[in-house]
């Protein structure tokens, strides 16, 4: 493997890396503490668009992980940044929670179901037939279809939950229109995050627990990639993919000394 520049900044996924099913992964608190003490730029990433960065900061703090609000980057924020670049001051019909609606309000978007520029699909635990029907009709009438992330399922203590990608597939089947997914593995989310912290891909590492989103996004954005085995990917799964992470480690605890 080609020699890379020393790691000067870090991006890390949240679920499966720092926390797992609502509890912190052993060593995650020390990793975040080391990052903050080092002064190196870093972001905690999540494809989940339900929560605002302030919500996530409070959630992580209750688990003993002190991550400043400004160091949290969600697919909702990335989606808002994309829409602001594409069509500033536009309109959108949103299926999602506060994390997404707040991000769109903050860029000056008007949320409406009257001839919106976009239908924006995010994560929610209350998908309704009425809401999906309205989204389908708006897309059929010309609204552009955006989704925060392609994850088909999400974790819960009871097992897998249908996520944005699965619901997007339903809408696509009904409309014939594919959404543009902004979140991982789209490298757009990673590059926008790098810009937020003033980092460069050549000297940044990405830590994740999924080959198909975290590692792929890091790879396509030109970063060094670390796969941890505390989430959805097991050691036997790695060779099933045509690409590889730079390194596979058991958990985030194995990376503390690299910071």
Give a description of the structure.
With 259 residues, the protein is an alpha/beta fold. The protein folds into 2 domains: 9-47 and 184-258, 3-Layer(aba) Sandwich (Rossmann fold); 80-181, Rossmann fold. Helices cover 34% and strands 20% of the residues. It contains 8 helices and 15 strands. It has a 6-stranded parallel beta sheet with strand order 5-4-1-13-14-15, with helices on both faces. Strands 7-6-8-9-12 form a 5-stranded parallel beta sheet, with helices on both faces. Strands 2-3 form a two-stranded antiparallel sheet. A hairpin with a 2-residue loop joins strand 2 (19-20) and strand 3. Helix 3 runs parallel beside helix 4, helix 3 packs across helix 7 and helix 5 (129-140) packs across helix 6 (164-175). The longest helix is centred in the first third of the chain and has 12 residues, at 75-86. The chain is globular. Belongs to the HAD-like hydrolase superfamily. InterPro entries: HAD-like_sf, HAD-SF_hydro_IIA, HAD_sf. Pfam families: Hydrolase_6 (PF13344), Hydrolase_like (PF13242). GO terms for molecular function: hydrolase activity.
């Amino acid at each position: 493997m080609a020699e890379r520049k020393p790691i000067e900044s870090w991006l890390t996924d949240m679920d499966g890396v720092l926390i797992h099913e609502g509890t912190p992964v052993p060593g995650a608190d020390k990793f975040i503490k080391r990052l903050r003490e080092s002064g190196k730029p870093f972001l905690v990433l999540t494809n989940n668009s339900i929560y605002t960065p302030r919500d996530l900061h409070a959630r992580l703090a209750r688990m003993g992980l002190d991550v400043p609000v400004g160091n949290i980057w969600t697919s909702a924020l990335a989606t808002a940044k994309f829409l602001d670049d594409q069509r500033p001051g536009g309109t959108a019909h949103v299926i999602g929670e506060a994390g997404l609606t707040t991000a769109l309000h903050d860029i000056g978007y008007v949320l409406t179901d009257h001839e919106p520029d976009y239908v924006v699909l995010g994560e929610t635990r209350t998908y309704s037939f009425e809401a999906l029907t309205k989204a389908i009709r708006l897309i059929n009438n010309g609204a552009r279809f955006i989704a925060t992330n392609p994850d088909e399922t999400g974790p819960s203590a009871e097992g897998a939950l249908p996520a944005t990608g699965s619901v997007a597939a339903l809408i696509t089947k009904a409309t014939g229109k594919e959404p543009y997914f902004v979140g991982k593995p789209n490298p757009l989310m990673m590059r926008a995050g790098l810009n937020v912290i003033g980092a460069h891909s050549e000297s940044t590492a990405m830590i994740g627990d999924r080959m198909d989103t975290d590692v792929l996004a890091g790879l396509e954005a030109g970063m060094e990639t670390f796969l941890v085995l505390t989430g959805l990917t097991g050691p036997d799964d790695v060779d099933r993919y045509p690409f590889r992470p730079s390194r596979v480690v058991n958990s985030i605890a194995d990376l503390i000394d690299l910071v």
